[in-house]
Write a structure and sequence with these properties.
seven-stranded parallel β-sheet
């Protein structure tokens, strides 16, 4: 079996790979950018958050390139892919950009729903479609679509968000079937709660979240972005060479079920 095991454990896992990360300025996207750079990848990352993106680019000291990007615009995809192509053959796409809208179904306006749809679902579709030809030219690649635990089940108040994350899961499977013949793997990642801005970090401390939300989870704490980014790193690497069309969950056991304090062993 070829790969990093034969070469020795000191080789970097993404050596000579070129990657694109969307929503890369903060949170899970930024964690993925840092890990990928650390494992030898050349990374181009996009985001609408320009100040945060420039700050991360400076932190990476030339090892990652930031491009202002709206994932709902094909022209922005063309620009990011061109910038990545200037670094070498495109091998990895992490479709991470997303927004959440929390409201009752009857309080979700057309505008609310369409905004979430355009970024989470249509933006992911544009990304997958846009990298097919560059990855075919490269001889293959890995597409990682960031869905959510709410793409496997759902919660009240998440009609827009959850429906788009389920759609990302379906797109992943369809694309995997079509693209496997070209050596392109397509998988979805399903994070549970993470201590990021989207996950409540702007509202309370991790300790408060653990007490009020996560105390009965199998792993009774909120997740860290790097813990999910490690899963993305695995899927981007050749270690995941026989994995495609699958869901990879990092949720602290959320999908398994909650501990009931009244039951034995709890």
């Amino acid at each position: 079996m070829m790969g990093y095991i034969e070469k020795g454990f000191n080789v970097k896992r993404l050596e000579n790979k070129v990657a694109i990360v969307t929503g890369g300025a903060r949170g899970l996207g930024a964690a993925a950018v840092r890990l990928m750079v650390g494992e030898g990848a050349k990374v181009v990352f996009g985001d609408v958050l320009e100040a945060e993106g420039r700050a991360l680019e400076d932190e990476m000291e030339g090892q990652a390139l930031f491009v202002p990007m709206d994932v709902t615009e094909q022209g922005d995809w063309n620009e990011v892919i061109a910038r990545a192509g200037s670094l070498g053959s495109l091998n990895v796409l992490v479709n991470n950009a997303a927004v959440v809208h929390m409201a009752a179904l009857t309080k979700t306006s057309d505008e609310d729903y369409l905004r979430v749809f355009k970024i989470n679902q249509f933006g992911t579709f544009l990304g997958v479609r846009s990298v097919v030809e560059p990855m075919k030219a490269a001889g293959g690649g890995s597409i990682i679509n960031v869905s959510s635990i709410d793409g496997l089940h759902s919660s009240a108040g998440l009609s827009a968000y959850s429906s788009t994350k389920w759609a990302v899961r379906g797109l992943t499977k369809s694309a995997a079937i079509e693209l496997g013949q070209y050596g392109i793997r397509v998988n979805s990642v399903h994070p549970g709660g993470m201590y990021t801005s989207m996950g409540g970090a702007d509202l309370m401390s991790a300790e408060q979240l653990n007490t009020y939300t996560y105390s009965n989870f199998p792993i009774p704490r909120v997740g860290e972005a790097e813990e999910v980014a490690q899963l993305i790193l695995f899927l981007a690497s050749d270690e995941a060479s026989y994995s495609t069309g699958s869901e990879f969950v990092a949720d602290g056991g959320w999908f398994a079920g909650m501990r009931n304090p009244d039951m034995p062993c709890s």
